[in-house]
């Protein structure tokens, strides 16, 4: 048994060769991207305030982090994203479970859910800023709105697709309604729910930026506006975009890692 | 009263539960149980079925496909409420899923995200047992079904038979006095199935529960049961109750005796006019010992009386010299 356990561990953890095999295409595509970028600069002769070169952007990125320009904006946006995602996915999970268990609830609520999803959050943002001010709370509302739909639908579909025979089995051991939700339905729907959360975390970043554009004084979205409108610092805009992209990618990877950890063994 | 000194009868008192401790087998009485399904395809399923199971008795329910055997089993376990009539276990009415009952379904129905051991602990977790007792009981049960070395394996990595053993251990977790088995080994191949039946009897001897078993197989019913109850096609009524007076402990070789074949013929005589293909198939597939004239004859008669039955349907044809 211990031999088998050891074997399965070595299979799961990629060795240096496999790691290299997964890493080199990423490095290659990055390198191609940077080279093409540089070539475009050289060939077109765009001035730096329209399209700065990769090296300029990298220098500005390092400088903005080193001199403390980036940090307050970054931390504000990160907090908005994390709290908004947590709030939105919590509400979505609860509503999703309710929708899955009651056809009536689904019929009553689904028109509003679809309408809320079909209306662009960008168009709702000014209204939300009007109602809830330009502080953290209005950003959380926007994040919640945007995260809600994919997570709620994934939860509902996931729970609906849990094997009904497992529910009967749990009932035969006198599981309460709450135990059926927490011990059978949610664990059974977990792969689907995590898929929804994976979509949700990237949408939460969008929600935070949209919220900042509707009103606010710090955040990466604000920094983009400052860099463009008052500083004419296009390299800083690019450095901010880079920060945003890195934040989105990191959060996504964290979600994947959580997913692996929770359902990887199934 | 000292809370630690609860009498044994006080429900699932789990303080001193051991798999080897003899349980008082349940005395089950079903009294004129009737049931109809409403909805899109309404059906009258059970028609005033009465049954009684003595403590430690093994009763096999046999009948044509879709006759309501499994439904009757669920009514006995309180998973489906009856429209009329009632079920009593040790004199107390069954009103819902009952703590005195353990159910093994046709499929293992294990939770794929839990290990074998965690699956066995599942009923104890639902019942809120302390962790240490869960672990001890689960380890005992896994030992009982011979799976201690698979405790940390996930169901996905286990074979169908092994999974069903885990399911049996799980059904025994709360020390039920009545075990309900819904065609538990029907997914297994014939040889494995025989072995599992022998194991089931060994387990029953060590746990001492009453057992109600749904099966399609006459040899299986006779091998396991003290009494075989033959049900009619829908709506199910009790057509016959055949007492199996074979000594225990039983062995697989007992199936070759003449007593068994005359019992099988008796059971089959009640089933013959039910025109059910599945039974004929089952009979053919399962070990009716070769060389016994009683074994094949009724099944063949059955196939012959079916007009338009394709030739390949008759499973005895290839070996039949006549």
List strands and helices in order, with pairings.
The complex is a heterodimer of chains A (266) and B (322).
Chain A: H1 2-12, H2 16-44, H3 54-66, H4 70-101, H5 103-118, H6 121-132, H7 136-160, H8 164-172, H9 177-213, H10 220-230, H11 234-263
Helix pairs in contact in A: 3-11, 4-5, 4-7, 4-9, 4-10, 6-7, 6-9, 7-9, 9-10, 9-11, 10-11
Chain B: E1 28-37, E2 43-53, E3 58-62, H1 69-76, E4 84-89, E5 92-93, E6 101-104, H2 116-126, H3 131-144, H4 160-171, E7 178-182, H5 190-207, E8 210-215, H6 218-224, E9 227-231, E10 238-243, H7 258-271, H8 277-285, H9 293-305
Parallel strand pairs in B: 3-8, 3-9, 6-7, 7-8
Antiparallel strand pairs in B: 1-2, 1-4, 4-5, 9-10
Helix pairs in contact in B: 2-3, 2-4, 6-7
For this entry, give a set of tags.
heterodimer; A: 266 residues; mainly alpha; MetI-like fold; 11 helices; 85% helix; globular; disordered N terminus; B: 322 residues; alpha/beta; 4-stranded antiparallel sheet; 10 strands
Short characterization:
The complex is a heterodimer of chains A (266) and B (322). Chain A has two domains: 2-44; 62-263, MetI-like fold (Orthogonal Bundle), CATH 1.10.3720.10.
Question: What this model shows, in words?
Answer:
The complex is a heterodimer of chains A (266) and B (322). Chain A is an all-alpha fold and 266 residues long. Chain A has 2 domains: 2-44; 62-263, MetI-like fold. Chain A has 11 helices and no strands. In chain A, helix 4 (70-101) runs antiparallel to helix 9, helix 9 (177-213) packs parallel to helix 10 (220-230) and helix 10 packs antiparallel against helix 11 (234-263). Chain A is globular, with a radius of gyration of 23 Å. The two termini of chain A are 19 Å apart. The model of chain A is unreliable at 1-11 (pLDDT under 50). Chain B is of the alpha/beta class. Helices cover 33% and strands 19% of the residues of chain B. Chain B is built from 9 helices and 10 strands. A 6-stranded mixed sheet of chain B has the order 6-7-8-3-9-10, sandwiched between helices. Chain B has a 4-stranded antiparallel sheet with strand order 2-1-4-5, covered by helices on one side. In chain B, strand 7 (178-182), helix 5 and strand 8 form a beta-alpha-beta unit. Chain B is globular and about 50 Å long. The model of chain B is unreliable at 1-17 and 290-322 (pLDDT under 50). Chains A and B meet through helix 8 and helix 9 of A and strand 6 and helix 2 of B.
């Amino acid at each position: 048994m211990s031999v088998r356990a050891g074997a399965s561990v070595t299979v799961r953890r990629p060795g240096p060769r496999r790691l290299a095999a997964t890493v080199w295409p990423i490095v290659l595509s990055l390198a191609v991207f940077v080279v093409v970028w540089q070539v475009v600069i050289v060939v077109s002769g765009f001035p730096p305030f329209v399209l700065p070169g990769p090296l300029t952007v990298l220098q500005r990125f390092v400088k903005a982090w080193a001199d403390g320009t980036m940090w307050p904006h970054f931390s504000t946006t990160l907090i908005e994203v994390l709290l908004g995602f947590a709030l939105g996915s919590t509400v979505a999970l609860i509503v999703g479970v309710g929708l899955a268990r009651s056809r009536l609830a689904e019929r009553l609520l689904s028109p509003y859910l679809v309408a809320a999803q079909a209306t662009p959050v960008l168009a709702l943002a000014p209204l939300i800023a009007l109602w809830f001010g330009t502080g953290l709370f209005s950003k959380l509302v926007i994040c919640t709105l945007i995260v809600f739909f994919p997570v709620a639908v994934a939860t509902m579909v996931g729970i609906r697709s849990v094997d009904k025979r497992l529910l009967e089995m749990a009932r035969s051991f006198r599981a309460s309604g709450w135990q059926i939700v927490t011990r059978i339905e949610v664990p059974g729907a977990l792969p689907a729910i995590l898929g929804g959360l994976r979509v949700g975390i990237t949408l939460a970043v969008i929600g935070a930026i949209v919220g900042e554009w509707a009103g606010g004084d710090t955040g990466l979205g604000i920094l983009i506006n400052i860099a463009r409108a008052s500083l004419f610092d296009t390299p800083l805009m690019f450095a901010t975009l880079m920060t945003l992209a890195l934040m989105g990618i990191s959060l996504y990877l964290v979600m994947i890692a959580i997913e692996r950890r929770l359902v990887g063994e199934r | 009263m000292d809370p630690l000194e609860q009498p044994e009868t006080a429900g699932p008192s789990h303080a001193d539960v051991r798999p080897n401790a003899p349980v008082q087998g349940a005395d089950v009485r079903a009294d004129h149980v009737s049931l109809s399904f409403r909805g899109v395809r309404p059906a009258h399923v059970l028609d005033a079925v009465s049954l009684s199971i003595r403590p430690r008795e093994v009763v096999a329910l046999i009948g044509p496909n879709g006759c309501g055997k499994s439904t009757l089993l669920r009514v006995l376990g309180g998973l489906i409420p009856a429209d009329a009539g009632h079920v009593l276990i040790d004199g107390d009415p069954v009103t819902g899923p009952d703590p005195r009952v353990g159910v093994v379904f046709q499929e293992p129905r294990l939770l794929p995200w839990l290990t074998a051991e965690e699956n066995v602990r599942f009923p104890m977790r639902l019942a809120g047992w302390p962790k240490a007792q869960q672990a001890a009981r689960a380890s005992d049960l896994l030992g009982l079904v011979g799976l201690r070395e698979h405790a940390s394996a996930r169901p996905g990595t286990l074979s169908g038979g092994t999974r069903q053993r885990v399911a049996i251990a799980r059904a025994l977790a709360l020390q039920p006095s009545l075990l309900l088995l819904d065609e538990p080994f029907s997914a297994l191949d014939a040889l494995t199935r025989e072995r599992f039946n022998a194991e089931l009897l060994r387990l029953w001897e060590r746990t001492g529960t009453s057992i109600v078993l749904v099966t399609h197989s006459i040899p299986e019913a006779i091998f396991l049961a003290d009494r075989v109850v033959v049900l009619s096609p829908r709506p199910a009524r009790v057509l016959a109750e055949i007492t199996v007076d074979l000594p225990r402990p039983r062995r697989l070789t007992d199936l070759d005796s003449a007593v068994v074949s005359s019992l099988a013929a008796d059971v089959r005589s009640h089933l013959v006019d039910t025109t059910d293909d599945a039974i004929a198939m089952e009979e053919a597939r399962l070990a009716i010992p070769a060389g016994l004239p009683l074994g094949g004859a009724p099944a063949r008669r059955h196939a012959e009386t079916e007009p338009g039955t394709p030739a390949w349907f008759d499973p005895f044809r290839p070996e039949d010299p006549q």
